[in-house]
Amino acid sequence: MNLWRVVFTFLSVFILSASCRGAFDFRQPGIPINTLAQHLRTNIAVPLENSNDDEKPASKYMYTVSDEKRMCTLANMIITISVPYEKKEKKNVQATLTVPANAQVTGTCSPILSEMTLTWKEPEKAVKEEDPPKEENKDNTIRFTFLNDHTSFSVFSVDVNIYLDNKNFPSKTDEVNWYNKTSENDLRLFTAPLLKGIHTCDKEIKFKVKEAEVTIKNVKLIAFNTDKDGNSHDKEVKCDEQDKSKTFNYVIKDKNDAVCLLAKMSISLNVPYKTKDNKQASKTISIPNDAKISGTCESNLSKMKLTWKPKGESTFDFPNENEIEFYFKREETKAYLQQVMFKIKLDKENFPDSIDDKAVSYGSSDVLSTSAKNGMYSCVDEISVNIMDTEVIIKDVLLVAFDVQESFNSKKVTECPPSLEPSFKKYKYVVADKNNPTKACIAANMTVSMTVPNKENDKEGEKTILVPNNAQPSGECEDVSSTMTLTWSKTTTYAQDTSNSITFSFKKKESEYFLEGVCINLASNKDKFYDSPSCTNGKKTDLHEFSAPLSHLYKCDEETSIEVDKVKLKISNIALIAFNTKDSLDKIEVKNCPKPEEPEELEESNVGAIVGGVIGGLAALALIIFLAIMCKRRSNVVNRTYG
Hints:
Elements: H1 2-24, H2 33-43, E1 63-66, E2 71-86, E3 92-98, E4 104-108, E5 113-120, E6 140-148, E7 152-163, E8 178-182, E9 189-193, E10 197-201, E11 205-209, E12 212-222, E13 235-238, E14 250-253, E15 259-274, E16 280-286, E17 292-297, E18 301-308, E19 322-330, E20 334-345, E21 358-371, E22 375-379, E23 383-387, E24 390-400, E25 412-415, E26 429-433, E27 436-456, E28 459-466, E29 472-477, E30 481-488, E31 500-509, E32 512-521, H3 535-538, E33 545-549, E34 552-556, E35 560-564, E36 567-577, E37 589-592, H4 604-642
Parallel strand pairs: 10-13, 22-25, 34-37
Antiparallel strand pairs: 1-2, 2-3, 2-12, 4-5, 5-6, 6-7, 7-8, 7-9, 10-12, 11-12, 14-15, 15-16, 15-24, 17-18, 18-19, 19-20, 20-21, 22-24, 23-24, 26-27, 27-28, 27-36, 29-30, 30-31, 31-32, 32-33, 34-36, 35-36
């Protein structure tokens, strides 16, 4: 018996050892890791691997949204939603739901507007068999839309979609099964800096989603994250410290008191004026943030008008305020800024010794372009709009000119191209590379003037037009041919409906580039001013000017004259490169134009020899004349003696 007991004990130990090895050997295939982890948690008091302080960033947050590169949104928060509903006995009550920590998370990682949606299903009461079948989709959702305003992030709006189940909403009326509402825009909740910012808030924050009330507490939020993980975000902003100002400083409402235009932008004007001593001057003025706003909204045309008081007293008695108007137009495929009008008082502080009392102008444009349907425009960099001789500078733009009431999480955001590399900003006229907007394929500084026939008081004459420094450049760069067009608005001499332009055509041939053609297109009063031909039949294409090796900057201070039809074109002070492939022009090689031929200077020795020769020649001539006279006198004396 003792032998059998020993054998039985041995077999029992062997079987137990084998079963333990099968349960806990991590290398054994076929055992799910979650089953293993559960077994370990329930049966053995040892921590899982990676459960120390170096846990992954995702495990520190309840809710995360990722794209293929990184987690863009990371959030911890406790959310409750109080939803109103009507009972069958016509009594209005509320039910409160808590968003579970294990809610399903979905979302987007777009650069300006991103979203995070939490989805969950509430457990229901058991129903009787004779009750009719319910809807299959009973998922509740809360969706957060985040806005990047170029410096910080915030919760812009919140949507809730709640199924009125029979457990949380007992005795509800049969007519309504869902509560689906959106909050007001620009909630400006949980703000923090874009760069390494994180918002934290322990206290309860309440806000309305129409009749429902959302309460959020214990917040830890990062949005628009661009780091590999969220661990480097150390610029903490607490809810008591956040900026309470709204994102959009300009808001227009329609006749029904509904918001129809939202704009965030900084605006300044560079206004030229003439002083009493007949000198040209200019002054840049900024439109204050507290400018009064008014406007109108139609289906395809919106107007925004800003007015503000000038500084100091006006140079003249001109009681009106400063004002600027922006007209936004919607066409079939795009919406854009179509026209700008302004009226500026030339006050003593900003415009000393001005001979005029005001600057008034208007002009057309085609900037801030975005989708016609539910579009939004975003741009951090400066955008220049040239209105006659005045430059309107707009920057830090967020604009919704149409369809404001449409959902922001479905906005089609258009961003302006990236800013040029600093070395290209030294040039007045730039055509950006279509494949790399941070560099220029054509860059130029030059003074361009045109002398054209002009009729004044029935007398034929000429008029000189100077292309302004703020002319708008545009163009295209191809492999062997490129163009740069400079466009500027009319002056009082010009026609009232068209801009003026000059187009330069460049050619690349072997190892050099050069100016091949020029077209001048002036819109003018035909009775008074020369009306130039269009580019199609007035283009001069037989030029070979401003030649330089490829990847070289052409420089020339001397004046170059070109005749295009009846126009005498003069170009000077040139710094130009075409077909550029370099990322920076800081260390570009320079090709200088040949200097005009000058007469050779005479050396001092040559001058002395020439002067000496002249003096010697004159002395010899005087001696010859003297001898001739003496000989003649002597001959006369001899003749008298022997005559």
